[in-house]
Amino acid sequence: MNAPLRQSHLRCINCSLPSEHVVVYVGRIVSEVQCTNCGARTRLDVREEYLPDLGERIKSKPKRVWRRLLASPLALMRSLPGHLLTKPLRMLREMWLVWRR
Ligand SMILES: [Zn+2]
Predict the structure, then answer these.
(1) CA–CA dist 15, 12 (Å, integer)
(2) Distance 66 CA to ligand 1 centre (A)
(3) Cα(first)–Cα(last) distance of the chain, in Å?
(4) How does pLDDT run across 2-12, given as a tens digit for each residue?
(5) What is the pTM of this model?
């Protein structure tokens, strides 16, 4: 669940139509849902849940990297430099999504 954006088919609470929604994640937590039909955006206050989730992600990172290394070492070696370079920006984006108001 690393992708910060996902598409889901939901019923909108604003226009009441079943439509595609863009779902924004911070880590493993949904922080925002936007209807692609009417543009209505629902932001969720995830400040309390974010730091415990971040802690769990940090603790489980070595195991997840090992799992990826064993499953596909070449793919990991190809993607690792880019992921390491962009990680600070991705973390800043996550924190901005959590604490903006
Ligand atoms: Zn809508």
Answers:
(1) 6
(2) 42
(3) 25
(4) 457 788 889 99
(5) 0.76
